[in-house]
Amino acid sequence: MSKHVTHWIGGRPAAGGARRRGDIYNPATGKVAGTVDFAGRAEVDAAVAAAADAFPGWRDTSLSKRVAVLFRFRELLKENADELAGLISSEHGKVVSDAAGEVQRGLEVVEFACGIPHLLKGGYSENVSTGVDAYSILQPLGVVAGISPFNFPAMVPMWMFPVAIACGNTFVLKPSEKDPSASVRIAELWAEAGLPDGVFNVVHGDKEAVDGLLEHDGVKAVSFVGSTPIAQYIYEGAARSGKRVQALGGAKNHMVVLPDADLDLAADAAVSAGFGSAGERCMAISAVVAIDTIADDLLERIRARVERLRVGPGDDDRSEMGPLVTRAHRDKVASYLETGVREGASLPIDGRVHPVLGGGGDGFWLGPSLLDHVTPEMACYTDEIFGPVLSMLRVPSYESALELINANPYGNGTAIFTNDGGAARRFQNEVEVGMVGINVPIPVPMAYYSFGGWKKSLFGDSHAHGMEGVHFYTRTKAVTSRWLDPSHGGVNLGFPTNG
Ligand code: NAD
């Protein structure tokens, strides 16, 4: 049965037909599973208007009442986690257990946001001058927008809206048009939790919807997560129209393996972090940087593990890795295997011949692959592949590994595998990357830290969630007050000083 997904505006599904629609695929079969409405300016205006109407009431809702809604939302997310994971898997392709992990990491941001009364405390100084007190308060911005990528249809929006809404803002989400259903189910859960109509809205679509939000005077801040060219476009466009902006971009994550590392641990990590979610994670390991002396040994351990990996439909319990998100993306990722070999790399692990449980049919399949002897000028290294392709680079020393990473334009995540604490400490200090793992391949920060990369992996000043999220979604007001002081000294045109 074909499904149809539409916008969620003012606490209910939008009425009326859409001018434009997109197809939603089941990546495991390659078949169209439904359609999604694409918003134009009218739908964006309606969503922003609903959010603007809801703002004064939500801003003035007490912290205790806001938190009560957040706690209920948290419970509902937990109760409905399996359903959400199933929805994500059916449109994205990732295996259900992996989708459940993404729901869990999003839920942790909701739990962080449940502590908002503590996080929104300002400062207070008594007697900054005689009988004068000074204090600061954190106030919401108004209507804020989030634009998210296909690869985490639940978790990435949940990096944004729990904190934004807890701070008293109202929210318009524009999720990826490739897997839009989770966002609407989340909107229903918000409504069930008692969130007032209009506080959380969803508009679907593509560039037209994004540009509508970017150019809308009523939107005060934009959070974006996606590829680097679009992140830069969002950053520049939002800044031009005077909005606060955080735009998280693409990645090329390196994993350095030093000779003293536990090579079984490193091989497990490379396979898990390279091929989990078919490599469609912004924190996926893409480049394995091995010191020459252990590279052959590491490659054989990786190969042995890859041979055992079960690739198949996301809803098959036996599957460890699913298909890619679209046919076009699958073909682009596979093309790097050809260009890599043409440019001089070897292909010891070719995912095009990896078996697929159930045969695969017309699904968007590409098995785990590894290009070896990759060098920095090859396209498979310079481009973000965003698929199940590991590139192995062989280097003579720690210094050359570090130089390679620091010269790379991206700086999202990285990891080092070693048993030398001194080397690990040096790496954490010297590497120019926002998120660092030490014997941990996917160092995604917990909700109470903040998530974000450096260099071309982030445009803007704030990382997502944690205290940086609270700061992003609030503005500080500093108040100076005098009560009960009759000795104000009369008229004085001089600049106020303290006494
Ligand atoms: P994308 O940049 O193609 O799309 C992201 C969002 O932007 C979507 O909502 C999409 O509809 C919209 N968009 C696409 N083209 C646009 C255009 N021309 N103008 C305006 N809006 C446009 O990214 P994607 O393919 O959905 O996701 C994968 C990318 O996201 C990868 O590069 C990955 O590294 C990155 N990502 C980064 C992080 C991070 O935290 N840094 C997290 C997840 C994903």
Helix and strand layout, with pairings?
Layout: E1 3-5, E2 8-9, E3 12-13, E4 20-26, E5 31-38, H1 41-59, H2 63-79, H3 81-92, H4 96-113, H5 116-119, E6 124-129, E7 132-140, E8 143-147, H6 155-166, E9 170-174, H7 181-193, E10 200-202, H8 207-215, E11 219-225, H9 228-240, E12 244-248, E13 253-257, H10 263-275, E14 285-291, H11 292-308, H12 327-342, E15 346-349, E16 369-372, H13 379-382, E17 389-395, H14 398-407, E18 410-411, E19 413-417, H15 421-430, E20 435-438, E21 454-455, E22 458-460, H16 466-472, E23 474-482
Parallel strand pairs: 1-5, 8-9, 8-11, 9-10, 11-12, 13-14, 13-19, 14-17, 16-17, 19-20
Antiparallel strand pairs: 2-3, 4-5, 6-7, 7-23, 12-22, 15-16, 18-21
Helix pairs in contact: 1-8, 2-4, 2-7, 3-4, 3-7, 4-6, 6-16, 10-11
This protein binds nicotinamide-adenine-dinucleotide (NAD).
Residues 147-152, 156, 174, 176-177, 206-207, 210, 225-227, 230, 233, 248-251, 282, 384, 386, 412, 453, 457 line the site of nicotinamide-adenine-dinucleotide (NAD).
Domain Aldehyde dehydrogenase: 21-479
EC number: 1.2.1.27
Region (Disordered): 1-21
Q: What descriptors fit this protein?
A:
499 residues, alpha/beta, Aldehyde Dehydrogenase, Chain A, domain 1, 2 domains, binds nicotinamide-adenine-dinucleotide, Ald_DH/histidinol_DH, methylmalonate-semialdehyde dehydrogenase (CoA acylating), Ald_DH_CS_CYS, Ald_DH_C, oxidoreductase
